[in-house]
Specification:
- The protein is of the alpha+beta class.
- It has a single domain (about 5-115), classed as HIT-like (HIT family, subunit A, 2-Layer Sandwich).
- Helices cover about 20% and strands about 20% of the residues.
- It contains two helices and five strands; from the N terminus they run E-E-E-H-E-E-H.
- It has helices at about 50-70, 110-115, and strands spanning about 15, 20-25, 35-40, 75-80, 95-100.
- A five-stranded antiparallel β-sheet has the order 1-2-3-5-4.
- The longest helix has 21 residues, at about 50-70.
- It is globular and about 40 Å long.
- Residues about 115-123 have low confidence and may be disordered.
């Protein structure tokens, strides 16, 4: 299996817990855009265990604290694509945490943030 998220270098990791790591998105749509990635190769959010869901909750709060300290956003969009038809391009569970700012031109739903987001693959 050739999965870019299964072999991330340690120096890319911002926050971690027993089940997840968090890294800066390679192509951020807003300053501070972070990916939370399962350490176990699970394809989608539906493949996470109950214990992993608890750990996901914990790391989301750790990432929020990190972003509050570093970027001071005014809000957040949080989302995960599940399956190719939903826009998932890396088939290893990851959750986008996208900080939002009052100065953003478009407010509201995530589609307003990622309208110009293009598909990408990690090398």
């Amino acid at each position: 299996m050739n999965c870019a998220f299964c072999s991330l270098p340690e120096d890319k990791i911002i926050v971690r817990n027993d089940s997840f790591i968090a890294i800066n998105d390679a192509l951020p749509v807003k300053p501070g855009h972070i990916l939370i990635i399962s350490q176990r190769h699970a394809e989608t959010i539906f493949d996470l265990s109950e214990q992993e869901f608890c750990q996901l909750h914990n790391i989301i709060h750790q990432v929020k604290e990190h972003l509050e300290n570093k970027h001071k956003p005014d809000g957040y969009n949080i989302g995960a694509n599940s399956g190719s038809i939903a826009g998932q391009t890396v088939h290893h569970f990851h959750l986008h945490i996208i900080p939002r700012y009052k100065k953003d031109h478009k407010f509201g739903f995530i589609k307003n943030t990622v309208r110009n987001l293009r598909e990408y693959h990690l090398e």
